[in-house]
Known about the structure:
About 25% of the residues lie in helices and about 35% in strands. By secondary structure, it is α/β, with parallel strands linked by helices.
Amino acid sequence: MKRIKVVLLDDEVNAIKSLRYELSKYKEIHIVHEFDNPHMFLEKEAIIDYHGLFLDIDMPKYEINGIDIAQKINKPFIFVTAHSSKYANEVNEIRDLGESCVALIPKTTYKKELIENAILKLHKRLNLIQNFVEWNNTTENKSIEIKDIQVISTKDYSNDSLPNAGRDKFLYRNGKKHVTVLNKNLDECLLDLPPNYFFKVNDSHVVNKSFIQDVNDKDILIKITVLEDGKVNHKIERIKISPVTADKFKAFYYAKI
């Protein structure tokens, strides 16, 4: 399963802590931000890289509730609320309106089956975009097709430059010109990619298993598409495997898809 980046929003700090604890049991969930102020969330929402929102409904500390928030964002959301919420009827109406409302979880008793069902539904809701990642890059189109990604690296293989010291990364695509992914480190990239295909082999490279040509104990050979003298060429590059990750990488590489 793809790791899902989520935001938690509740006006009660203890409620956030409880939900964080429950979600920590699921390795496919990655909490990227928590808010106890809905207005602060709305101010920052546009610049947060996340897939879905776990959202309290009744927030009496503020002149806004979870239903108001849900109608202001363009992301899937999961309502988390008390059984006796005065907004129960409105929630049922919203759940009938479309796909954005994934589930409703009572916060009084976090039942395992309800959380697992919500996560499964969120995965299905996100399935339409799982073939692509939307990263800021040097092309006009933010969407990058996952199956085309060969290598994400700190190195520009088109001119054998020195490793890039900043946060920008070079992304090589099968049969296409490489792009520069802006302001994103390798670990952050990896979170958005299917773990059965992508692996961070060292501090400078994330590779796609599909394009590996050969493997030994110290390095791999992988096909990379580069633009040289205005022409798209395929190169076979040798990339060293970090000793720390060597055993894990071999298990990953030889595992069945």
